[in-house]
Amino acid sequence: MNIDDVKNIAVLGAGNMGHQISTLCAIKGYKTTCMDVSDEILKKAEAFVDKYLPGRVEKERLTKEQAKKARENLTFTSSLEEAVKDADYVIEAVLEVVDLKRKIFADLDKMAPSHAILATNSSYIVSSRIADATSRPEKVVNLHFFNPALVMKLVEVVQGPHTSDETAKISMALCDKLEKIGVHLKKEVEGFLLNRIFRAISREAMWILEMGVASVEDIDKACVFGAGHPMGPFRLNDLTGLDLSYTMGMEAFRETGDRSLLPSPRLVEHCIKGEYGEKTGKGWYDYSKQS
Ligand SMILES: NC(=O)c1ccc[n+]([C@@H]2O[C@H](COP(=O)([O-])OP(=O)(O)OC[C@H]3O[C@@H](n4cnc5c(N)ncnc54)[C@H](O)[C@@H]3O)[C@@H](O)[C@H]2O)c1
What is the CATH number of domain 3-185? Predict the structure, then answer.
């Protein structure tokens, strides 16, 4: 199999990541099926596309013809079987719960064509924790997009000990086709590449806050105006979700036993109150007050 054999893509999960990844694949010419168990989320994803594509035409980033073609390429469904039956490449972007992902990969294995590559967009679950739920571990890989997937160029391709060189090569080639910058991690490592680097920054930011040294706003300002980051760690955390940081922190602690990786007390407080960031209207910042 090579990259030219990839024509149909299935994206599982139409949430934060899934709706953007599927829109991207459709724009880049792939017949794409976006699947979610929630009809409400599917409707939201469809409404997003129907607003996003005309917006790209208005901004002259796409021609009318390209936008029309992209829309025709994209279908939405709540049936897993329907989504994957003709897929050459599957990108799973459902909730970050390992047992759920294992169940989905086991089902996928039965429903997707035997040549299909099965990738997970997980933020930290290495694919070796999922691959043995399938009969084709050599075709299982991490394909890690960043949020927002339509904007961020980087994609990490993490090759597990079970992942074949062919699967890694096709996944890197898919990044090129999607006009992303793929980086190849030759080994599985907790946190992958960029999140390990980000985590060091974010952990320090959290503790500076906990120690009462500076406010959320000032820590973000320091990173933006001193280090040239496009946004500070707290603003970024509101975008990616405090709930995800919480689970990632707990998981990193479980994996390494390193207490310094545990979520900070204030992060836990926000999570207990259901303040997960932009998606809930409040996180480190209050979005309900914004015009
Ligand atoms: N949020 C980020 O910044 C980010 C960045 C990179 C990677 N990721 C990873 O992407 C994945 C998705 O994250 P998200 O932020 O989009 O989550 P999300 O909560 O926004 O979306 C997850 C979606 O999965 C759906 N879902 C649940 N069970 C399902 C099933 N059985 N079949 C199909 N869909 C199902 C839910 O209805 C929901 O719409 C996670 O693995 C996460 O670690 C997230």
Answer: 3.40.50.720
